[in-house]
């Protein structure tokens, strides 16, 4: 097995470059300084400032909670990349990254992927139920009306989020435990450093789990892309419909929401998952002892660094998501502007009355204001 080869055969060490030792730690430090306050503010707004929740508010709250967990891992990742080549594999700091930070990172990356997908689907459900087109969407003929109604319910959104958290945690924890206990097991001499071939490449089980996660990501990506194309087609059809005056603003808002989610997935998540599939194929080839090249540095050192840089790009989403909330939800936008004193002040009674009225509208129409 690959694990035995990594542990018992003399393999060239990974040689971190300037990018790994200095650039990546600096980027993770910047993500911590921007992501932690941004997501903390977002959670506070969702919990304390928005009087009436919609299904989208529920999804965005759980997305913010996941992003906050990711932001808390960034200082440890910065320390790992800067000091990992000097840490012994058995050191407490290395074990903390191995047993704690890595599972939290992987769990929250895929929780966010699932939740972003559900946000796009719920936006699409609002679109096809509250606008008109010259022809109905194909989805309305294939799926029952009750399905789209349920997508917009707060109780259903909470159940979906609980299911996502439970499913991802239960699927990830056993793999990460096996990875940290077996695939990165310290040899008897204890001389291996933390930033090593075993740590960065893992064994057969973790690579198999990565293949599954890549497939899941592309399934979610295609769902969001399909929603985007369906919305674009629906908007085109609605322009030829007589009853469009009251729905054009909603059409534009839903289209913008799905475009924002699609851009986030393309910029932050897609490069990592494309390269990760290539990386797994290369590592599988190098895992054969007959093909391993021994020398002062492992031949895949540069490939590992590219993978780690793209992983940092996926973490960037935890810092840009509060900006996404600002663009997706007008209620969130308004309360943030009030908190930052960038919005004209209103009296508390007037603001309460407006919030109550808008809450009733949201419950009636299922739209975000």
UniProtKB/TrEMBL annotation:
GO CC terms, sorted: membrane
Cell compartments where the protein resides: Membrane
Segments traversing the membrane: 27-47, 59-81, 107-128, 160-181, 211-233, 254-275
Predominant place of localization: membrane
GO MF assignments: G protein-coupled receptor activity
Keyword field: Membrane, Transmembrane, Transmembrane helix
Domain G-protein coupled receptors family 1 profile: 38-325
PROSITE patterns in the cross-refs: G_PROTEIN_RECEP_F1_2
Name by which UniProt lists this protein: G protein-coupled receptor 82
Source organism of the structure: Salmo trutta (Brown trout)
Source taxonomy: Eukaryota, Metazoa, Chordata, Craniata, Vertebrata
């Amino acid at each position: 097995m690959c694990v035995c080869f990594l542990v018992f055969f003399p393999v060239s060490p990974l040689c971190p470059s300037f990018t790994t030792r200095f650039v990546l730690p600096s980027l993770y430090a910047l993500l911590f300084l921007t992501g932690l306050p941004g997501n903390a503010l977002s959670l506070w707004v969702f919990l304390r400032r928005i009087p009436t929740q919609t299904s989208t508010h529920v999804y965005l709250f759980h997305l913010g909670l996941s992003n906050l967990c990711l932001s808390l891992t960034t200082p440890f990742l910065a320390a790992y990349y800067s000091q990992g080549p000097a840490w012994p594999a058995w050191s407490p700091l290395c074990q903390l990254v191995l047993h704690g930070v890595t599972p939290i990172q992987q769990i929250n990356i895929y929780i966010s992927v699932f939740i972003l997908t559900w946000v796009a689907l719920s936006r699409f459900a609002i679109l096809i139920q509250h606008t008109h087109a010259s022809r109905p969407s194909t989805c309305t003929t294939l799926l029952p009306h009750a399905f789209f109604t349920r997508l917009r319910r707060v109780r259903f959104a909470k159940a979906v989020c609980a299911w996502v958290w439970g499913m991802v945690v239960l699927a990830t924890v056993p793999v990460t435990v096996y990875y940290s206990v077996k695939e990165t097991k310290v040899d008897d001499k204890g001389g291996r450093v933390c930033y090593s071939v075993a740590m960065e490449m893992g064994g057969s089980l973790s690579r198999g789990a990565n293949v599954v996660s890549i497939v899941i990501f592309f399934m979610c990506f295609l769902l969001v892309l399909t929603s985007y194309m369906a919305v674009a087609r629906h908007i085109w059809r609605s322009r030829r419909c007589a009853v469009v005056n009251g729905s054009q603003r909603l059409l534009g808002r839903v289209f913008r929401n799905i475009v924002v989610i699609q851009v986030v997935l393309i910029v932050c998540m897609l490069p990592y998952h494309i390269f990760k599939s290539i990386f797994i194929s290369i590592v599988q080839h190098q895992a054969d002892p007959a093909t391993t090249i021994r020398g002062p540095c492992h031949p895949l050192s540069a490939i590992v660094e590219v993978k780690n840089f793209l992983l940092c790009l996926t973490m960037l989403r935890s810092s840009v998501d509060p900006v996404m909330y600002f663009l997706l939800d007008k209620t969130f936008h308004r309360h943030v502007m009030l908190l930052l004193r960038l919005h004209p002040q209103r009296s508390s009674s007037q603001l309460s009355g407006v919030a109550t009225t808008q809450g009733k509208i949201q419950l009636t129409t299922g739209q975000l204001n």
